[in-house]
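ARCHIVE CARD
CATEGORY: sequence design from structure
SOURCE FIELD: tokenized fold
FIELD CONTENT:
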């Protein structure tokens, strides 16, 4: 009990530090999600010890120079208010909706798929930025060695996951809670493990509860098109 209290105090220190970062969960973008959009029972999380909260979208030593350059570029743009870095936790993504900042708290039994490793460098290293005015998301993605499929290259499923995540984050920030209904990907050029690519996603149109998006994955110099995708997300009903 005493040990956990000490850890909780350490954790609260960490939360205070998190709140000094340039972008916070409670500053995020959706200002008018209807109250009926309450999290389902399945989305509720427990928070055993606060020190486990970690924002995975901050730089770490495993990031390549290209990852850092893209991060710095969009952090600079964030100073001018056009882009916001999206915090990223290993719990659910619902912290992107203003009503649920607490959902960043770590869970005991489940993890967000793209943040399921405890070590850095091996899996999905990524940071996303959202442009509210343009309804666009960019993601700087470094594919780690545990994402291999053909020798030396990233698995198509891992690429699909980063497309789903980037377009999902874009949609959540634009309209609130959604589910992926359709994802179409054309793989144009393999992504070398360890390399950094830029994922660019935008909302094309919104028709009622249907949100249509398109995504491109390119090399950081934009010369190589690795994949292009379209997605359809469905906004959750008021009762969900
Ligand atoms: C920071 C980290 C951010 C991470 C973000 C990650 C985001 C990842 C999100 C996911 O991966 S969610 C998991 C994968 N997706 C699923 O498991 C969804 C499974 N499918 C469902 O739950 C339902 O089918 C769905 C919620 C998508 C739709 O069911 P609904 O009952 O809410 O809608 P409905 O079937 O009434 O359809 C509404 C409209 O969408 C259309 N629609 C639904 N599914 C479609 C489809 N697959 N293709 C084309 N249109 C579709 C449907 O025709 C209709 O069009 P109209 O309004 O014009 O009549």
């Amino acid at each position: 009990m005493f040990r956990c209290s000490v850890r909780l105090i350490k954790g609260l220190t960490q939360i205070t530090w998190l709140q000094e970062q340039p972008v916070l969960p409670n500053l995020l973008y959706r200002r008018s999600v209807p109250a009926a959009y309450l999290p389902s029972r399945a989305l509720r999380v427990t928070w055993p010890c606060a020190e486990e909260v970690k924002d995975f979208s901050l730089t770490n030593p495993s990031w390549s120079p290209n990852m850092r350059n893209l991060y710095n570029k969009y952090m600079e743009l964030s100073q001018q208010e056009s882009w916001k870095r999206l915090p990223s936790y290993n719990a659910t993504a619902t912290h992107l909706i203003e009503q649920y900042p607490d959902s960043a708290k770590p869970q005991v039994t489940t993890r967000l798929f793209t943040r399921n490793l405890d070590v850095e460098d091996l899996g999905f290293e990524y940071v996303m930025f959202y442009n509210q005015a343009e309804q666009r998301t960019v993601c700087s993605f470094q594919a780690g060695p545990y994402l291999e499929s053909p020798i030396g290259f990233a698995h198509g499923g891992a690429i699909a996951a980063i497309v789903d995540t980037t377009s999902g984050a874009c949609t959540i920030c634009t309209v609130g809670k959604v589910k992926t209904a359709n994802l179409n990907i054309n793989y144009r050029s393999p992504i070398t493990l360890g390399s950094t690519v830029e994922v660019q996603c935008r909302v094309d149109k919104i028709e009622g509860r249907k949100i249509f998006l398109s995504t491109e994955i390119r090399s950081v110099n934009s010369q190589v098109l690795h994949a292009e995708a379209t997605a359809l997300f469905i906004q959750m009903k008021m009762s969900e």
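CARD ANNOTATION: The chain has one domain: 2-235. The beta strands are 84-86, 124-131, 136-143, 178-187, 196-207, 210-219, 225-235.
SHELF: design records, drawer C
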